[in-house]
Specification:
It is an enzyme of class 6 (ligase). With 526 residues, this protein is of the alpha/beta class. Helix content is 45%, strand content 10%. The protein folds into 3 domains: 257 residues, 3-Layer(aba) Sandwich (Rossmann fold), CATH 3.40.50.620; 129 residues, no CATH class; 104 residues, Tyrosyl-Transfer RNA Synthetase.
Length: 526
Protein backbone atom coordinates (compact mmCIF):
# COMPACT_ATOMS: atom_id res chain seq x y z
CA UNK A 1 0.00 0.00 0.00
CA UNK A 2 2.48 2.60 1.09
CA UNK A 3 5.86 2.21 -0.46
CA UNK A 4 9.40 3.42 -0.29
CA UNK A 5 11.61 3.57 -3.37
CA UNK A 6 10.35 0.46 -5.16
CA UNK A 7 13.43 0.25 -7.34
CA UNK A 8 15.47 -1.35 -4.63
CA UNK A 9 15.03 -4.01 -2.00
CA UNK A 10 12.42 -3.06 0.57
CA UNK A 11 13.39 -3.63 4.17
CA UNK A 12 10.49 -1.65 5.53
CA UNK A 13 7.06 -2.50 6.75
CA UNK A 14 5.29 -0.74 3.91
CA UNK A 15 4.10 -2.26 0.64
CA UNK A 16 5.79 -1.10 -2.52
CA UNK A 17 3.44 0.41 -5.03
CA UNK A 18 4.81 0.46 -8.52
CA UNK A 19 5.85 -1.67 -11.44
CA UNK A 20 9.48 -1.54 -10.45
CA UNK A 21 8.89 -2.83 -6.95
CA UNK A 22 11.08 -5.59 -5.64
CA UNK A 23 8.99 -8.73 -5.86
CA UNK A 24 9.23 -12.30 -4.71
CA UNK A 25 10.60 -15.37 -6.46
CA UNK A 26 7.83 -17.56 -7.82
CA UNK A 27 5.05 -17.55 -5.25
CA UNK A 28 6.88 -16.67 -2.02
CA UNK A 29 5.10 -13.37 -1.54
CA UNK A 30 7.57 -11.44 0.60
CA UNK A 31 6.91 -7.69 1.01
CA UNK A 32 10.59 -7.18 1.79
CA UNK A 33 11.98 -9.56 -0.83
CA UNK A 34 14.59 -8.76 -3.46
CA UNK A 35 13.67 -10.78 -6.54
CA UNK A 36 10.76 -10.51 -8.94
CA UNK A 37 7.59 -12.55 -9.31
CA UNK A 38 8.34 -14.94 -12.14
CA UNK A 39 4.98 -16.67 -12.63
CA UNK A 40 1.87 -14.56 -12.16
CA UNK A 41 -0.37 -17.55 -12.88
CA UNK A 42 0.62 -19.19 -9.61
CA UNK A 43 -0.67 -16.17 -7.74
CA UNK A 44 -4.18 -17.05 -8.91
CA UNK A 45 -3.81 -20.71 -7.93
CA UNK A 46 -2.07 -20.44 -4.56
CA UNK A 47 -3.08 -17.09 -3.08
CA UNK A 48 -6.61 -16.56 -4.33
CA UNK A 49 -5.78 -13.47 -6.37
CA UNK A 50 -8.43 -13.22 -9.08
CA UNK A 51 -7.85 -12.38 -12.74
CA UNK A 52 -8.75 -8.78 -13.50
CA UNK A 53 -9.91 -9.62 -17.02
CA UNK A 54 -12.88 -11.43 -15.51
CA UNK A 55 -14.36 -8.20 -14.11
CA UNK A 56 -13.05 -5.73 -16.70
CA UNK A 57 -16.48 -5.35 -18.31
CA UNK A 58 -17.95 -4.32 -14.94
CA UNK A 59 -15.52 -1.41 -14.55
CA UNK A 60 -16.77 1.95 -15.84
CA UNK A 61 -14.37 3.65 -18.26
CA UNK A 62 -11.49 1.29 -17.40
CA UNK A 63 -8.02 2.80 -17.26
CA UNK A 64 -5.62 1.78 -20.01
CA UNK A 65 -3.50 -0.09 -17.43
CA UNK A 66 -6.56 -2.28 -16.86
CA UNK A 67 -7.34 -2.69 -20.55
CA UNK A 68 -3.76 -3.70 -21.41
CA UNK A 69 -3.37 -6.23 -18.63
CA UNK A 70 -0.78 -4.23 -16.71
CA UNK A 71 -3.28 -4.41 -13.86
CA UNK A 72 -3.63 -8.18 -14.03
CA UNK A 73 -5.26 -9.25 -10.77
CA UNK A 74 -7.49 -8.18 -7.91
CA UNK A 75 -8.77 -9.24 -4.54
CA UNK A 76 -12.48 -8.50 -4.06
CA UNK A 77 -12.53 -5.47 -6.40
CA UNK A 78 -16.12 -6.06 -7.49
CA UNK A 79 -17.69 -3.98 -4.65
CA UNK A 80 -15.53 -1.03 -5.73
CA UNK A 81 -16.51 -1.44 -9.39
CA UNK A 82 -20.19 -1.66 -8.46
CA UNK A 83 -19.95 1.48 -6.31
CA UNK A 84 -18.33 3.39 -9.17
CA UNK A 85 -20.96 2.12 -11.60
CA UNK A 86 -23.79 3.23 -9.33
CA UNK A 87 -22.27 6.52 -8.15
CA UNK A 88 -22.09 5.21 -4.58
CA UNK A 89 -19.36 5.94 -1.99
CA UNK A 90 -15.99 4.31 -2.68
CA UNK A 91 -12.38 5.13 -1.89
CA UNK A 92 -8.85 4.58 -3.14
CA UNK A 93 -5.69 4.91 -1.08
CA UNK A 94 -2.00 4.45 -1.65
CA UNK A 95 1.12 5.99 -0.27
CA UNK A 96 4.81 6.52 -0.79
CA UNK A 97 7.87 6.28 1.39
CA UNK A 98 10.03 9.29 0.48
CA UNK A 99 13.45 7.67 0.30
CA UNK A 100 14.35 8.81 -3.21
CA UNK A 101 13.03 10.53 -6.32
CA UNK A 102 9.62 9.64 -7.74
CA UNK A 103 10.06 7.60 -10.91
CA UNK A 104 8.10 6.00 -13.73
CA UNK A 105 7.13 3.10 -11.49
CA UNK A 106 5.47 5.45 -9.05
CA UNK A 107 3.55 6.96 -11.95
CA UNK A 108 1.57 3.73 -12.27
CA UNK A 109 0.18 4.20 -8.80
CA UNK A 110 -0.28 7.95 -9.19
CA UNK A 111 -2.38 7.18 -12.26
CA UNK A 112 -4.44 4.54 -10.46
CA UNK A 113 -5.25 6.92 -7.60
CA UNK A 114 -6.15 9.75 -9.97
CA UNK A 115 -8.29 7.54 -12.22
CA UNK A 116 -10.35 6.32 -9.27
CA UNK A 117 -10.76 9.91 -8.10
CA UNK A 118 -11.99 10.91 -11.55
CA UNK A 119 -14.51 8.06 -11.45
CA UNK A 120 -15.97 9.46 -8.23
CA UNK A 121 -14.03 7.68 -5.48
CA UNK A 122 -12.69 9.51 -2.44
CA UNK A 123 -8.93 9.60 -3.00
CA UNK A 124 -6.21 9.43 -0.36
CA UNK A 125 -2.46 9.70 -0.82
CA UNK A 126 -0.08 9.53 2.09
CA UNK A 127 3.58 10.10 2.83
CA UNK A 128 4.99 7.25 4.92
CA UNK A 129 7.43 9.44 6.80
CA UNK A 130 7.37 7.44 10.05
CA UNK A 131 8.48 4.42 8.07
CA UNK A 132 11.21 6.32 6.26
CA UNK A 133 12.61 7.64 9.54
CA UNK A 134 12.35 4.47 11.64
CA UNK A 135 13.17 1.80 9.05
CA UNK A 136 15.54 3.67 6.78
CA UNK A 137 17.05 6.14 9.23
CA UNK A 138 16.37 9.11 6.99
CA UNK A 139 16.53 12.57 8.50
CA UNK A 140 13.36 14.64 8.60
CA UNK A 141 15.01 17.18 6.29
CA UNK A 142 15.63 14.48 3.67
CA UNK A 143 12.10 13.15 4.10
CA UNK A 144 10.61 16.62 3.59
CA UNK A 145 12.58 17.17 0.38
CA UNK A 146 11.55 13.86 -1.16
CA UNK A 147 7.96 14.14 0.08
CA UNK A 148 7.61 17.45 -1.72
CA UNK A 149 8.78 15.85 -4.97
CA UNK A 150 6.28 13.00 -4.68
CA UNK A 151 3.42 15.38 -3.98
CA UNK A 152 4.32 17.72 -6.84
CA UNK A 153 4.35 14.83 -9.32
CA UNK A 154 1.04 13.52 -8.00
CA UNK A 155 -0.59 16.94 -8.39
CA UNK A 156 1.03 17.50 -11.79
CA UNK A 157 -0.51 14.26 -13.05
CA UNK A 158 -4.00 15.39 -12.02
CA UNK A 159 -4.72 14.63 -8.36
CA UNK A 160 -7.28 17.10 -7.01
CA UNK A 161 -6.28 18.00 -3.42
CA UNK A 162 -9.56 19.77 -2.77
CA UNK A 163 -11.57 16.66 -3.61
CA UNK A 164 -9.08 14.25 -2.01
CA UNK A 165 -6.90 14.02 1.07
CA UNK A 166 -3.13 14.17 1.42
CA UNK A 167 -1.50 13.37 4.75
CA UNK A 168 1.70 12.37 6.51
CA UNK A 169 1.72 9.48 8.95
CA UNK A 170 3.63 11.47 11.56
CA UNK A 171 1.09 14.29 11.89
CA UNK A 172 -2.17 12.36 11.50
CA UNK A 173 -3.43 11.71 15.03
CA UNK A 174 -6.58 9.89 13.87
CA UNK A 175 -4.37 7.45 11.97
CA UNK A 176 -2.13 6.88 14.98
CA UNK A 177 -5.14 6.29 17.25
CA UNK A 178 -6.52 3.74 14.80
CA UNK A 179 -3.13 2.02 14.62
CA UNK A 180 -3.16 1.71 18.41
CA UNK A 181 -6.59 0.07 18.34
CA UNK A 182 -5.58 -2.33 15.55
CA UNK A 183 -2.47 -3.28 17.47
CA UNK A 184 -4.65 -4.75 20.20
CA UNK A 185 -6.00 -7.26 17.66
CA UNK A 186 -2.63 -8.26 16.18
CA UNK A 187 0.06 -10.33 17.88
CA UNK A 188 3.71 -11.24 17.47
CA UNK A 189 3.12 -14.87 16.51
CA UNK A 190 0.93 -13.68 13.65
CA UNK A 191 3.61 -11.25 12.44
CA UNK A 192 6.14 -14.04 12.78
CA UNK A 193 4.07 -16.34 10.56
CA UNK A 194 3.29 -13.69 7.93
CA UNK A 195 6.55 -11.75 7.79
CA UNK A 196 9.15 -13.99 9.39
CA UNK A 197 9.75 -11.60 12.30
CA UNK A 198 11.94 -12.99 15.09
CA UNK A 199 13.62 -11.91 18.30
CA UNK A 200 15.96 -9.64 16.34
CA UNK A 201 13.15 -7.64 14.73
CA UNK A 202 13.01 -4.14 16.17
CA UNK A 203 9.78 -2.82 17.62
CA UNK A 204 9.56 0.09 15.17
CA UNK A 205 9.44 -2.41 12.30
CA UNK A 206 6.46 -4.12 13.90
CA UNK A 207 4.83 -0.76 14.63
CA UNK A 208 5.22 0.19 10.99
CA UNK A 209 3.10 -2.80 9.97
CA UNK A 210 0.31 -1.75 12.34
CA UNK A 211 0.51 1.80 11.00
CA UNK A 212 0.24 0.37 7.51
CA UNK A 213 -2.93 -1.49 8.49
CA UNK A 214 -4.34 1.78 9.83
CA UNK A 215 -3.47 3.51 6.54
CA UNK A 216 -5.39 0.87 4.60
CA UNK A 217 -8.51 1.26 6.76
CA UNK A 218 -8.21 5.03 7.21
CA UNK A 219 -10.63 5.95 4.35
CA UNK A 220 -13.42 4.18 6.25
CA UNK A 221 -13.08 6.11 9.51
CA UNK A 222 -16.00 8.40 8.68
CA UNK A 223 -18.14 5.71 7.08
CA UNK A 224 -17.62 2.15 5.85
CA UNK A 225 -17.30 1.96 2.07
CA UNK A 226 -15.61 -0.17 -0.60
CA UNK A 227 -11.94 0.80 -0.68
CA UNK A 228 -9.23 -0.27 -3.10
CA UNK A 229 -5.48 -0.34 -2.45
CA UNK A 230 -3.29 -0.46 -5.60
CA UNK A 231 -0.24 -2.66 -4.91
CA UNK A 232 2.33 -4.93 -6.49
CA UNK A 233 1.59 -8.65 -5.96
CA UNK A 234 4.43 -9.03 -3.46
CA UNK A 235 2.47 -6.76 -1.13
CA UNK A 236 -0.51 -9.11 -0.94
CA UNK A 237 0.39 -10.30 2.61
CA UNK A 238 -0.28 -6.75 3.84
CA UNK A 239 -3.67 -6.71 2.14
CA UNK A 240 -4.66 -10.09 3.57
CA UNK A 241 -3.70 -9.00 7.09
CA UNK A 242 -5.65 -5.74 6.73
CA UNK A 243 -8.71 -7.69 5.58
CA UNK A 244 -8.40 -9.99 8.59
CA UNK A 245 -8.07 -7.05 11.00
CA UNK A 246 -11.04 -5.31 9.42
CA UNK A 247 -13.14 -8.39 10.23
CA UNK A 248 -11.78 -8.68 13.77
CA UNK A 249 -12.76 -5.08 14.47
CA UNK A 250 -16.38 -5.81 13.56
CA UNK A 251 -19.01 -6.10 16.31
CA UNK A 252 -20.78 -9.01 14.63
CA UNK A 253 -19.86 -11.91 12.40
CA UNK A 254 -22.62 -12.84 9.97
CA UNK A 255 -22.78 -16.43 8.74
CA UNK A 256 -25.20 -19.12 7.65
CA UNK A 257 -26.25 -21.74 10.18
CA UNK A 258 -28.52 -24.77 10.42
CA UNK A 259 -28.98 -25.28 14.18
CA UNK A 260 -28.41 -23.50 17.49
CA UNK A 261 -24.78 -24.64 17.69
CA UNK A 262 -21.84 -23.41 15.63
CA UNK A 263 -20.40 -25.38 12.72
CA UNK A 264 -17.03 -24.95 11.05
CA UNK A 265 -17.19 -24.08 7.32
CA UNK A 266 -16.48 -27.67 6.18
CA UNK A 267 -19.01 -29.02 8.66
CA UNK A 268 -21.62 -26.49 7.58
CA UNK A 269 -21.16 -27.40 3.92
CA UNK A 270 -21.65 -31.07 4.74
CA UNK A 271 -24.84 -30.42 6.71
CA UNK A 272 -26.12 -28.13 3.96
CA UNK A 273 -25.69 -30.89 1.36
CA UNK A 274 -27.63 -33.39 3.44
CA UNK A 275 -30.33 -30.86 4.29
CA UNK A 276 -30.89 -30.29 0.58
CA UNK A 277 -31.07 -34.02 -0.22
CA UNK A 278 -33.00 -35.51 2.72
CA UNK A 279 -36.77 -35.68 3.11
CA UNK A 280 -38.25 -35.55 6.65
CA UNK A 281 -40.90 -38.10 5.65
CA UNK A 282 -38.16 -40.67 5.14
CA UNK A 283 -37.63 -40.49 8.92
CA UNK A 284 -41.37 -40.55 9.78
CA UNK A 285 -41.20 -36.91 10.83
CA UNK A 286 -42.54 -33.62 9.53
CA UNK A 287 -39.22 -31.88 10.24
CA UNK A 288 -35.65 -32.80 9.48
CA UNK A 289 -33.79 -33.11 12.78
CA UNK A 290 -30.15 -33.26 13.83
CA UNK A 291 -30.29 -36.99 14.60
CA UNK A 292 -31.72 -37.65 11.14
CA UNK A 293 -28.80 -35.89 9.46
CA UNK A 294 -26.32 -37.65 11.75
CA UNK A 295 -27.86 -41.01 10.86
CA UNK A 296 -27.67 -40.31 7.12
CA UNK A 297 -24.07 -39.11 7.36
CA UNK A 298 -23.04 -42.22 9.34
CA UNK A 299 -24.51 -44.45 6.66
CA UNK A 300 -22.50 -42.72 3.93
CA UNK A 301 -18.95 -43.95 3.17
CA UNK A 302 -16.27 -41.44 4.14
CA UNK A 303 -14.90 -41.51 0.58
CA UNK A 304 -18.16 -39.98 -0.63
CA UNK A 305 -18.29 -37.18 1.93
CA UNK A 306 -15.34 -35.05 0.78
CA UNK A 307 -14.32 -34.37 4.41
CA UNK A 308 -11.56 -35.79 6.57
CA UNK A 309 -12.12 -38.13 9.49
CA UNK A 310 -11.66 -35.41 12.12
CA UNK A 311 -14.28 -33.18 10.49
CA UNK A 312 -16.66 -36.11 10.24
CA UNK A 313 -16.21 -37.00 13.90
CA UNK A 314 -16.73 -33.38 14.99
CA UNK A 315 -19.92 -32.81 13.02
CA UNK A 316 -21.44 -36.11 14.12
CA UNK A 317 -20.77 -35.28 17.77
CA UNK A 318 -22.48 -31.90 17.43
CA UNK A 319 -25.49 -33.35 15.62
CA UNK A 320 -25.95 -36.24 18.03
CA UNK A 321 -25.67 -33.98 21.08
CA UNK A 322 -28.36 -31.70 19.58
CA UNK A 323 -30.66 -34.72 19.24
CA UNK A 324 -34.16 -33.85 18.09
CA UNK A 325 -33.48 -30.17 17.45
CA UNK A 326 -34.80 -29.32 13.96
CA UNK A 327 -32.35 -28.53 11.20
CA UNK A 328 -33.45 -25.18 9.79
CA UNK A 329 -31.45 -22.75 7.64
CA UNK A 330 -30.98 -19.37 9.28
CA UNK A 331 -28.70 -16.35 9.19
CA UNK A 332 -26.58 -15.94 12.30
CA UNK A 333 -25.31 -12.77 13.96
CA UNK A 334 -22.44 -13.88 16.18
CA UNK A 335 -21.35 -11.43 18.89
CA UNK A 336 -17.67 -10.87 18.22
CA UNK A 337 -16.99 -7.74 20.27
CA UNK A 338 -20.27 -5.85 20.51
CA UNK A 339 -21.18 -3.73 23.50
CA UNK A 340 -24.23 -4.78 25.49
CA UNK A 341 -26.08 -1.80 24.02
CA UNK A 342 -25.19 -2.82 20.46
CA UNK A 343 -26.25 -6.44 21.05
CA UNK A 344 -29.59 -5.29 22.44
CA UNK A 345 -30.00 -2.91 19.49
CA UNK A 346 -29.38 -5.77 17.09
CA UNK A 347 -32.02 -7.91 18.74
CA UNK A 348 -34.54 -5.09 18.36
CA UNK A 349 -33.51 -4.46 14.72
CA UNK A 350 -33.97 -8.06 13.53
CA UNK A 351 -37.50 -8.33 12.17
CA UNK A 352 -39.48 -11.51 11.73
CA UNK A 353 -38.81 -14.84 13.40
CA UNK A 354 -35.64 -14.93 15.48
CA UNK A 355 -33.95 -16.85 18.27
CA UNK A 356 -31.79 -15.06 20.83
CA UNK A 357 -28.92 -16.89 22.51
CA UNK A 358 -26.18 -15.75 24.88
CA UNK A 359 -23.64 -14.98 22.13
CA UNK A 360 -25.65 -14.93 18.92
CA UNK A 361 -28.95 -14.13 17.29
CA UNK A 362 -30.48 -16.36 14.62
CA UNK A 363 -32.76 -14.74 12.04
CA UNK A 364 -35.05 -16.85 9.86
CA UNK A 365 -36.44 -14.16 7.55
CA UNK A 366 -33.22 -12.38 6.49
CA UNK A 367 -30.86 -13.43 3.74
CA UNK A 368 -27.10 -13.10 4.12
CA UNK A 369 -26.80 -9.77 2.25
CA UNK A 370 -29.62 -8.16 4.24
CA UNK A 371 -28.07 -9.40 7.46
CA UNK A 372 -24.65 -8.01 6.58
CA UNK A 373 -26.14 -4.60 5.91
CA UNK A 374 -28.16 -4.65 9.12
CA UNK A 375 -25.16 -5.71 11.22
CA UNK A 376 -23.08 -2.87 9.83
CA UNK A 377 -25.84 -0.30 10.41
CA UNK A 378 -26.29 -1.36 14.03
CA UNK A 379 -22.54 -1.32 14.61
CA UNK A 380 -22.02 2.17 13.19
CA UNK A 381 -25.06 3.51 15.06
CA UNK A 382 -23.52 2.20 18.27
CA UNK A 383 -20.03 3.60 17.95
CA UNK A 384 -18.34 0.91 15.87
CA UNK A 385 -16.45 1.29 12.61
CA UNK A 386 -18.31 -1.25 10.46
CA UNK A 387 -15.24 -1.71 8.27
CA UNK A 388 -15.65 -3.37 4.91
CA UNK A 389 -12.74 -5.66 3.97
CA UNK A 390 -10.42 -3.55 1.77
CA UNK A 391 -10.00 -4.56 -1.86
CA UNK A 392 -6.82 -4.50 -3.91
CA UNK A 393 -5.64 -4.42 -7.50
CA UNK A 394 -2.27 -5.78 -8.62
CA UNK A 395 -0.02 -4.55 -11.38
CA UNK A 396 2.90 -6.19 -13.11
CA UNK A 397 6.47 -5.26 -12.31
CA UNK A 398 8.37 -3.21 -14.85
CA UNK A 399 11.60 -4.61 -16.20
CA UNK A 400 14.73 -2.53 -15.76
CA UNK A 401 15.90 -0.69 -18.86
CA UNK A 402 19.16 -2.64 -18.68
CA UNK A 403 17.37 -5.98 -18.28
CA UNK A 404 16.59 -7.69 -15.00
CA UNK A 405 14.95 -5.79 -12.21
CA UNK A 406 15.00 -2.06 -11.82
CA UNK A 407 17.40 -0.83 -9.16
CA UNK A 408 17.97 2.64 -7.76
CA UNK A 409 21.65 1.70 -7.44
CA UNK A 410 21.78 1.36 -11.24
CA UNK A 411 20.68 4.76 -12.62
CA UNK A 412 20.55 3.45 -16.20
CA UNK A 413 17.90 0.88 -15.22
CA UNK A 414 15.17 3.38 -14.35
CA UNK A 415 13.92 6.85 -15.19
CA UNK A 416 13.17 9.38 -12.48
CA UNK A 417 10.36 11.84 -13.02
CA UNK A 418 12.97 14.46 -12.15
CA UNK A 419 15.53 13.31 -14.73
CA UNK A 420 16.69 15.89 -17.22
CA UNK A 421 14.64 15.15 -20.37
CA UNK A 422 17.85 14.65 -22.35
CA UNK A 423 19.00 12.08 -19.78
CA UNK A 424 15.69 10.29 -20.11
CA UNK A 425 16.14 10.26 -23.86
CA UNK A 426 19.65 8.80 -23.51
CA UNK A 427 18.56 6.09 -21.08
CA UNK A 428 15.89 4.85 -23.45
CA UNK A 429 18.29 4.92 -26.39
CA UNK A 430 20.71 2.77 -24.39
CA UNK A 431 18.07 0.33 -23.14
CA UNK A 432 18.08 -3.40 -23.70
CA UNK A 433 15.45 -4.63 -26.18
CA UNK A 434 13.70 -7.83 -27.13
CA UNK A 435 15.06 -7.66 -30.64
CA UNK A 436 16.92 -10.29 -32.64
CA UNK A 437 20.66 -10.26 -33.21
CA UNK A 438 20.41 -8.88 -36.75
CA UNK A 439 17.94 -6.77 -38.69
CA UNK A 440 17.48 -9.60 -41.17
CA UNK A 441 16.56 -12.04 -38.41
CA UNK A 442 14.22 -9.46 -36.90
CA UNK A 443 12.40 -9.03 -40.20
CA UNK A 444 12.17 -12.79 -40.63
CA UNK A 445 11.18 -13.88 -37.11
CA UNK A 446 9.89 -10.66 -35.57
CA UNK A 447 10.93 -9.14 -32.27
CA UNK A 448 10.07 -10.40 -28.79
CA UNK A 449 7.92 -7.53 -27.54
CA UNK A 450 6.78 -9.52 -24.50
CA UNK A 451 10.39 -9.59 -23.29
CA UNK A 452 11.28 -6.01 -24.22
CA UNK A 453 11.75 -3.26 -21.60
CA UNK A 454 11.27 -0.64 -24.31
CA UNK A 455 7.90 -2.06 -25.34
CA UNK A 456 6.90 -1.97 -21.67
CA UNK A 457 7.49 1.78 -21.76
CA UNK A 458 5.01 2.05 -24.63
CA UNK A 459 2.42 -0.12 -22.87
CA UNK A 460 2.81 1.35 -19.38
CA UNK A 461 3.39 5.02 -20.18
CA UNK A 462 4.30 6.29 -23.63
CA UNK A 463 1.11 5.25 -25.46
CA UNK A 464 -1.05 7.02 -22.90
CA UNK A 465 -4.71 6.22 -23.47
CA UNK A 466 -4.14 5.29 -27.13
CA UNK A 467 -4.64 1.50 -27.22
CA UNK A 468 -4.48 1.49 -31.00
CA UNK A 469 -0.99 2.98 -30.95
CA UNK A 470 0.22 0.52 -28.30
CA UNK A 471 -1.15 -2.39 -30.31
CA UNK A 472 0.39 -1.11 -33.53
CA UNK A 473 3.82 -0.93 -31.90
CA UNK A 474 3.39 -4.48 -30.62
CA UNK A 475 2.14 -5.90 -33.91
CA UNK A 476 4.85 -4.18 -35.94
CA UNK A 477 7.49 -5.53 -33.55
CA UNK A 478 6.41 -9.17 -33.53
CA UNK A 479 5.62 -8.98 -37.24
CA UNK A 480 9.16 -7.91 -38.09
CA UNK A 481 8.19 -4.52 -39.54
CA UNK A 482 9.59 -2.48 -36.63
CA UNK A 483 13.33 -2.54 -35.98
CA UNK A 484 14.81 -1.77 -32.58
CA UNK A 485 16.78 1.30 -33.59
CA UNK A 486 13.76 3.18 -34.92
CA UNK A 487 11.58 1.90 -32.11
CA UNK A 488 13.98 3.14 -29.43
CA UNK A 489 14.36 6.48 -31.18
CA UNK A 490 10.61 6.97 -31.14
CA UNK A 491 10.34 5.84 -27.50
CA UNK A 492 13.26 8.06 -26.45
CA UNK A 493 11.68 11.09 -28.08
CA UNK A 494 8.32 10.36 -26.44
CA UNK A 495 10.02 9.95 -23.07
CA UNK A 496 11.81 13.26 -23.49
CA UNK A 497 8.52 14.97 -24.34
CA UNK A 498 6.79 13.34 -21.38
CA UNK A 499 9.47 14.50 -18.94
CA UNK A 500 9.44 18.03 -20.36
CA UNK A 501 5.67 18.23 -20.05
CA UNK A 502 5.58 16.67 -16.60
CA UNK A 503 8.23 18.97 -15.20
CA UNK A 504 6.49 22.03 -16.61
CA UNK A 505 3.29 20.91 -14.87
CA UNK A 506 5.21 20.38 -11.64
CA UNK A 507 6.22 24.02 -11.75
CA UNK A 508 2.62 25.04 -12.41
CA UNK A 509 1.26 23.20 -9.34
CA UNK A 510 3.76 24.67 -6.84
CA UNK A 511 1.13 27.09 -5.53
CA UNK A 512 -1.47 24.32 -5.43
CA UNK A 513 0.81 22.29 -3.19
CA UNK A 514 1.47 25.25 -0.90
CA UNK A 515 -2.28 25.66 -0.44
CA UNK A 516 -2.94 21.94 0.11
CA UNK A 517 -3.87 20.74 3.57
CA UNK A 518 -0.66 18.84 4.32
CA UNK A 519 2.40 19.74 6.34
CA UNK A 520 5.31 20.25 3.94
CA UNK A 521 7.83 20.63 6.74
CA UNK A 522 7.89 18.12 9.54
CA UNK A 523 7.43 19.53 13.07
CA UNK A 524 10.01 16.93 14.12
CA UNK A 525 12.81 18.76 12.35
CA UNK A 526 15.40 20.18 14.71
Amino acid sequence: MTGDDPLEESESGEPLTDGGAAGADDVALDPWGSSSVSDYRKLFEEFGIEEFDEILEEVPNPHYLMRRGVIFGHRDYRPVAEALQNDEPAAVLSGFMPTGDPHIGHKLVFDEIIWHQQQGADAYALIADLEANSARGMSWEEIDDHARDYLLSLLALGFDPEAGELYRQSTNRKLQDLAFELGADANFSEFQAIYGFDGETDVSHMQSVVTQMADILYPQLEEPKPTVIPVGPDQDPHVRLARDLAERMRFFKVSEAYASFELEPEERALVADFYADLEPADFDDDQLRCVHVAEAIEETPLSELAVDADTLSSVLTKLEEAGMEPIRPRTRFFDRRATDEAFDALIDAVEGEKRVYENHVDAFDLDRAEAEELAREVEVDNGGYGFQPPSSIYHRFMTGLTGGKMSSSIPASHISLLDDPEDGYDKVKAATTGGRETAEEQREKGGKADECPVYELYAYLLSGDDDEFAKRVYDECVGGERLCGDCKEQAAQLMKEFLEDHQEKRDEVEDLLEDADIELESPRRR
